[in-house]
Amino acid sequence: MNQLEKVLYTAKAHSTGGRTGTSRSSDGRPVRLSRPGTPGTGTNPEQLFAARWSACFDSAMDFAARNMKITLPADHAVDAEIDLGPEGGAFSLAARLYVSLPGMERATAGRLIEATHEVCPYSRATHGNIAVETTLLWAAPMKADSDRLIAAHTLKGERA
Hints:
Blueprint: E1 13-16, E2 22-25, E3 30-32, H1 45-68, E4 77-87, E5 90-100, H2 106-119, H3 121-126, E6 131-137, E7 152-159
């Protein structure tokens, strides 16, 4: 188990009503929740996790690139997909990260992605706990209304 050297930030949230309720952060921002696949007007925990991980991974990639003295493409991006499903009488998650680094040399991009997994708090928290597949995109990032990938290369399959 990891031990923080110093707490930089503590996020707090209060939730009521489970997947059909509301969560509110300590600064008062409410989030309406809906079950996945239902016509509700809220988001769901898996969507929130995908948003958090992709944003964190993108920031961690900037940190890793600076440490490696690599310049990130201006249009770099990260898309995340989080799956929810049954596993042995319980529920589990699986994840896919799609990293867009247009114009970056493939070997350099691979090293950067691996280094990013080492410093990203979400990658570190999930490492060895859920199946994670990271795919390097060689085209523009996915649009919110499209699931189609133009060109992709999976890096070393699953990250266990």
